[in-house]
Specification:
The structure holds two protein chains of two kinds. By secondary structure, chain A is mostly helical. Chain A has five helices and one strand, in the order H-H-H-H-H-E. The longest helix of chain A has 18 residues. The radius of gyration of chain A is 20 Å and the shape is elongated. In chain B, strand 7 and strand 8 form a beta hairpin. In chain B, helix 4 packs antiparallel against helix 5. The termini of chain B are close together. Classes of the chains: A mainly alpha, B alpha+beta.
């Protein structure tokens, strides 16, 4: 059950809202999906989506059921519609060689190292082989799989 | 279809319907298979769906879908690259032979995919960076490329009756032309030609071997034999 991950992602997205600051940042209703006005609703919809994804494995988990009810309450309280944009995808991905936090949105780049990727001389982040070779001093390993015939 | 896994297991698989070949943080590949003929045990892939997941500054999520007689040279949204992000060009698609051979390069994850159509079936080959292939959670536990064909879905060649007028000697002769080594690819070729009665299946096995030759980092593992790889 990965409910703690959902909780952490929600907390992280609402922290950035609070640091953004304006009172309007916690209200729904910006039709163009602007970052400010519907921020909390976006975060709640993402949170709800995350709980739905983990529902099967979390069905016996009290924290999961608390979260589901909490989301319901907050969505009603802030007048959030169930349909609508969600928050940017959270940073997630495989264990990185070198480890450490990653940037959002989207999963972490495999083979990446945060320290290097933020340096001015960083390799192209979208060139996996170049990035891996530079970080590890050797080319990456590859695997092959195939399916054919009848 | 015949499945060669990342770990050099070679199985003939009876899987029907949609089964994942890959399911990780970066890629999802699903093959949809149906019986070669009504009542037959052997199945063949008629649809492939590939999802390249959204990734940071590299690409928007892109979906590629191929079906028999429809091998597009573009993603589902009509685009041929990863979109407007700075690294959008790190995902690209090209047609090597219109209608029968498409190649997708995903440089941002060190991955190359080849999709072919031969004899009314779709073939899939992938070369993927190790840490990309390993980036999945315990919940993503069904991946034919990772675990091979589940034991309950494996097919032995004695379980299938051959169709058509092709004899085993003719099938062996046809397959021998492109596959001189009597390895798993050769045996798969003989199986396919006998089961389908269609000599064009030799092309699928031959192309799969050529893709393996191009994609395997260690060519010593190219030929798999029944004794060491669980081949049919």
């Amino acid at each position: 059950c990965k409910i703690l991950r959902c909780n952490a992602e929600y907390v992280s997205s609402t922290l950035s809202l609070k640091s953004g600051g304006s009172p309007g940042a916690l209200r729904e209703g910006d039709p163009d999906g602007g970052v400010g006005s519907s921020g909390l609703c976006r975060a709640l919809r993402s949170y709800a989506l995350c709980t739905r994804r983990t529902a099967r494995t979390c069905r016996g988990d009290l924290a999961f059921h608390s979260a589901v009810h909490g989301i319901e309450d907050l969505m009603i309280q802030h007048n959030c519609s169930r349909q609508g944009p969600t928050a940017s995808p959270p940073p997630r991905g495989p264990a990185l060689p070198g480890g450490g936090p990653v940037r959002s949105p989207g999963p972490a780049l495999p083979g990446a190292s945060p320290a290097r990727s933020s340096s001015p001389a960083a390799p192209d982040p979208c060139d996996y082989e170049g990035r891996f070779s530079r970080l590890h001093g050797r080319p990456p390993g590859f695997l092959h799989c195939a399916s054919f015939g009848d | 279809p015949h499945v060669r896994s990342f770990h050099h297991h070679f199985h003939t698989c009876r899987v029907q319907g949609a089964w994942p070949l890959l399911d990780n943080d970066f890629l999802f590949v699903q093959a949809t298979s149906s019986p070669v003929a009504s009542g037959a045990n052997a199945t063949t892939t008629r649809k492939l769906t590939i999802i390249f997941k959204n990734m940071q500054e590299c690409i928007d999520q892109k979906v590629y879908q191929a079906e028999v007689d429809n091998l597009p040279a573009a993603f589902e949204d009509g685009s041929v690259n990863g979109g407007a992000r700075p690294g959008g060009s790190s995902l690209s698609i090209r047609t090597a032979e219109p209608g029968s051979h498409v190649e997708i390069q995903a440089a941002y994850i060190g991955t190359t995919i080849i999709i072919r159509q031969t004899a009314g079936q779709l073939s899939f080959s992938i070369k993927v960076a190790e840490d990309v292939a390993r980036a999945f959670s315990a919940e993503q536990d069904l991946q034919l490329c990772v675990g091979g064909c589940p034991p309950s879905q494996r097919l032995s060649h004695s379980e299938c009756n051959h169709r058509g007028a092709i004899t085993i000697d003719t099938a062996r002769q046809l397959c021998k032309e492109g596959l001189p080594v009597e390895d798993a690819y050769f045996h798969s070729c003989v199986f396919d030609v006998l089961i389908s009665g269609d000599p064009n299946f030799t092309v699928a096995a031959h192309a799969a071997l050529e893709d393996a030759r191009a994609f395997l980092p260690d060519l010593e593992k190219l030929h798999l034999f029944p004794s060491d790889a669980g081949a049919p």
